[in-house]
Design brief:
Layout lengths: L11 H7 L5 H9 L7 H6 L1 E7 L2 E6 L14 H17 L6 E12 L10 E10 L3 E10 L4 E13 L4
Amino acid sequence: MGRTRTYEWQDPGITAAAVGHDTGLDLLRAMVAGRLPTPPIAATLGFTLDEVEHGRAVFSLIPGEEHYNPIGSVHGGVYATLLDSAAGCAVQSVLPAGVGYTSLDLNVKFLRRMTVDTGPVRAIGKVVNSSRQTALAEATLLDEKDRLLAHATSSCLLFPVQAA
């Protein structure tokens, strides 16, 4: 029997337009509070931004079969997406209004297998260093027993964003 999954998302342009007006922390807090739409990738994979503070962001996901690769475990791209989101949003949380970022690289180390039996997982990102043009962040992916599933580092390029 086939399985299906249906999901919805809102216009990502609404949130993107706020980047030029709000600080990164204000923008992320507005998403957590539901005042701004979350990015469509969050709906696609089923993860949420749960906590954000200056220099730190926490995402969560409950692994499902829809995340599986051909060998019956969660695809590495799901790990990478969670880690990239946590590291990137940690960087965004330290940015002033009118500044955006993009990931330059993401270095991921996979340490443990993840399946539906793993239960809820969380990706915790934090800023390690930030300058006017770049930022370095790291992220960890933990299960509910705080076992390390994967970790990553990310370099981000910072750039000016025009207010819409």
